[in-house]
Fold this protein.
Amino acid sequence: MNNYLTLEHRDDIGIVWIDHPTNKVNTLSQQAAAEWQKMLAQIEGDPALKAAIFISRKPNNFIAGADIEEFQSFRNAKEGEELSRFAQTLMDKIANSPKLCVAAIHGSCLGGGLELALACHYRIATDDPQTIFGLPEVSLGVLPAAGGTQRLPRLIGLPPALHMLLTGKRVRAVEAKRLGLIDSVVVTDGFANTAVLATKQVLAKRHPRALSFIQKLELLTPLRQIILAQAKKQALQKSGGHYPAPEAILDAVSVGLARGLPAGLRVEAKQFGALLQTNVAQNLIRLFFLQSSHKKSNLKDDKPSHVGVIGAGFMGAGIAQVSLQHGYDVILHDVKEDMLIRSEKQIWDAVQNQRLISKLHTETDFSHFGKCDVVIEAIFEDLKLKQKLLRELEPHLKDDCVFASNTSALPISSIAEHSTRKSQIIGMHYFSPVPKMPLLEIVRTKETSARTLAIATEIGFQQGKTMIVVNDGPGFYTSRILAPVMDEAIVLALEGVPLKEIDQTFQSFGFPVGPITLMDEVGIDVAGHVAKALTAFFGARMTGAKWEAMEELLRRNILGRKTKRGFYVYDKDAKHKKINTEVQLILLKHRQPSKTVSKREEIQSRIVLRMINEAVYCLQENILQSPEDGDVGAVFGLGFPPFLGGPFRYLDKIGAKHMLSELEALRNKFGERFAPAPLLMDMAAR
Amino acid sequence: MTRHSTSDKGTRSAPAIVGGCRTPFIKSNGAFATLISYELGRFAVNALLDKTGLKADIVQALAMGTVISDPRTSNVAREVVLSSALPNTVPAHTVTMACISSNMAATSIADMIRLRHIEVGIAGGCETFSDPPIRVSRRVRMALAKASKAKGVGDYLRLLRTLSLADLRLDFPSPTEFSTNETMGQGCERMAKQLGISREESDRFAQRSHALAGKAWSEGKYDIDVVAVDVPPHFHKVSRDDGPRPNSTSADLAKLKPAFDAEFGVVTAASSSFFTDGASAVLLMSDALCQKLSQKPLAHLIDYVYAASDPLHELLFGPARTIPSLLERNGLKVADIDVWELHEAFAAQVLANLKFLAPTIGEIPMDKLNLWGGSLSLGHPFGATGGRLLLTAAKRLEAENGRFAVVSGCAAGGLGSAILLERP
């Protein structure tokens, strides 16, 4: 690696510029670590130098972390442990260097980057919002393995260190200064010059930061054990026992504080090697790479600048907001003036930036839509309505404008049916709330052109979305595999399984929310709409539950959170949400008794296996281009447990044969909705 | 030397600076504390008329720059007309463009002349920081507005109850950027860091400014153009700037603590321009009328450039953003300029601009820069400084037998101005 590290002399200070020659971000690989070793030796051997400043040439990162790709190549725990020992040696060398080592941090300082900074004797950082500190290893199922579990508690005290280690929480510079993680916060302007000035000041008068009395007390045995025990309890509660990394982190911290740094480092390295071999870590690391590979755009020129959004509901406003925030001029349309006003407020509350809001134009006609490069509609889910909109809108659009529908289930080709520009029509299925949810499902029809797809992908890329491209079909991928989940949940409810138990069972599998709560969130009417639309195509596979109960809910305006009454009652003041007794009576009235009462495990299987079976159908029918896309869509769009890696990864793990036999058993017991996908049978036969 | 890329910038049609005047520049809350800004403007304009010996009724426009506006005299230029020896038929407008307000006043008057709308105009500026418009808080103002409709004690009490103790805090005008919420000093620190300006360099430049101002005064450079003011109501005479401290040494300056960045700052109170009261005025005239009235122009205002840049990272880079294009489009090089007058907001700001410019246009020689002192020593009445710079540049051209002068300044909002003068 040429010029990864270059040394610049400024008086008696050496400035070490970090600049990965080919990557946009600096990472710590084994190769890089070797360069670091050489550089440190050079600095130590240079009598003219009193101090070294480590600073990045990249515009937005110091060192973004370890080179995770290397993690994947280890065949056994020993190899992982050795890598950790190698990195620890480098950090020790910095920490024990006779020369003053200063980390000058601008941009992301994460994982191994932060561990390197922790090993330095002084840390100065810019106040830029891009300057963030964090140890995200826990979210990859591993632990910081270059001394992070040891140096962080010693620097900032036990409770905040545990918080950062166990949650991967990122902090900005001002907060980092408050925590004692860094010594100085300065403006970005002339940062290297300031770092030199700071280094000179520290050379003139070393002032090692000391922990406060309380912080020292927390590191002492009795109090430390209480804090660690408490943290362990909380971590277990939060991980649901699915993630092994938090316990390993606590082990390393605990041993390090009880028996000293070298002992702690040994545990850290051993735990790292072991964690890397777990399914959880491998699934999380695979997802990390899948996510980056699903965040790409190839559009070189002809880049869109104006985005039109039609329908100023919660969703439309969300799409408008993320478009504004990522540099687009936005024209937002709704037939109702008051919807536009409501949206402007929603967007303003989120962005609080006059410069951005100046780029938002709202209108009740289409007079500015001629400027749009892309129009995304988010109006009511009704095929006729959407076709009518397209008919009215098309004369206002410029010839090469792309039209995207944010429908969650209607086939895009049906929406495009009467259009004269079918090649420019595509689906862009966002998830609510748009600014928070990472996934964008892009739906192409047989007629969608390559350019249209490239532009939709560019928009999603700029908006920071993780994208999967699927082929058109009812419910595409995500809605289609979610529909059976909701259907089965209602069947269970009609069988008399308590609503909370349904939710909890699903959550214990690892989903963030249960299906009953999810229906309340998306709206029972919307869920019903999707179910009906899909039933028309897939028949029995989507209709386990009787319609009558649902229809009665809709008649009584029990639509979920938006009407304050769904399966649960939504009361601002209530601490815990309560079951809606009115719904319980309706469920009782339409009861669908079952021959057997499902136990917890069976409930889980009934819901989850229907979902996975439908995903296999999607792959078989070429809705999905690859199982990887299926995993990305389910994890980032539907909250499929990341530690399981996604439905296809999970299927691989349990085995097609096993799943087939389970489905067959359920089919015998509960009917045709459990009929296995032919592709699954093929897989099982192989 | 090739020059005059566009014909209408030719000397023949360029407006002439015939004369100029200013009041002494006095630290705020000092000898001018009883005056409000239009009164200062009146002294400058009256003295200018007196000095040029021209009849007041030939003046066809007055433009005055000001920054901290008194709401009672929001068009302060018109109040100057109505209180001065000018006939009340002279139209007047006020220009506000932060610290380059009177630069804009001068170039506006120059344009009116160039476009033949007028033949004679006065441009200048006036500023006082001794009586800034201090406001009550927004909530108190809203309550006061409602109070005008209140009926009875009950209503008043209800209004009072809407206010908290914190609402009684007063709202002082301050040199803070509205859009970034940073002070000018913080902006200067950013620039100093970008260009690596050291504390020593900064202190040395501040000391230089004071020494040169002291020297200019003792050599009588300002005797003619700085007019003594008899300050009402007691009419005590104020005749000299009170800012210059020619005897202070670099060692004195080195003792001060940084004012805007305690840890790594270079800007101190001594290397910053200070709040000042004062006014300036210059008389501009068409070349044709100059000949008719046998007036000898000090200089012609040949061309000007305004520019703006990012108010957070490039707040005070005005000279760096304007001087290169001014030189380029007039076919001039640094070596062609005999007189440089740069506004000194902060010592580090001037040095940062010079350092920034060096690689593109070359080094501006210190022996041609601000030789009669600058805003650091003479003071900086925001709206009036541009008038002082133009006048000093014109007078220096004469004293130093030069041909071209560049007057340039930075201003809040990331604004910048550069004006080219040529001595006939």
